[in-house]
Each structure stands twice: as C-alpha cells, then as structure tokens.
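Progress note, sequence design subtask.
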C-alpha cells in the first residue's frame, strides 16, 4: 500500500485543537479518525496522545504562519510557508 501522505509537508494544527482531540481518543482508548478508526490504541499511540509529542511542529507551523502574514503574504501563501519543513531558502 502506497503512503498517501506527503512527508515533506508539516501537518500542524492549532495546539489546543490537537490536544482536545488527543484527550478524547486517550479517554476512549480507541482511534477516532483516520484509517485505524475504531481500532484500539497501541502503546506507542497511547504515548503520543498522553505525551502530546507533536506540539513542537504545531508551534513551529504557527510561528511561520504568523511571521509570513506580518510580512504581508496572503493567507494561502502563509499556509504554504508554514507547512514547509526546514529553514527557508533565500
């Protein structure tokens, strides 16, 4: 099965939205979205949801988005910039 996700792109959320969804999944102990919906959480995914390990990517994406908007970019351009991994090429 081919990977349908582009791993070169950051998939960030507003941290409070991700935390809310993860808290719901952690309490239910079941995947509530995606290809594994309805399956029980394995120990790794339980750790992801309780530890909230993806917050650094979320905060980096928000920082890049706000910075691009302050530089006068459109919302579409800012969204594309915020999802780019790594440092910008000048």
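Output:
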């Amino acid at each position: 099965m081919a990977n349908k996700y582009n791993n070169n792109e950051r998939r960030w959320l507003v941290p409070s939205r991700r935390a809310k969804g993860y808290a719901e999944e952690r309490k239910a102990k079941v995947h509530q979205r995606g290809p594994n919906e309805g399956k029980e959480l394995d120990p790794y995914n339980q750790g992801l949801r309780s530890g909230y390990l993806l917050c650094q990517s979320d905060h980096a994406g928000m920082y890049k988005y706000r910075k691009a908007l302050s530089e006068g970019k459109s919302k579409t351009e800012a969204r594309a910039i915020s999802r780019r991994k790594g440092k910008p090429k000048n």
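Helices lie at 15-28, 43-51, 55-70, 75-83. Work on this subtask will continue into the next period as scheduled.
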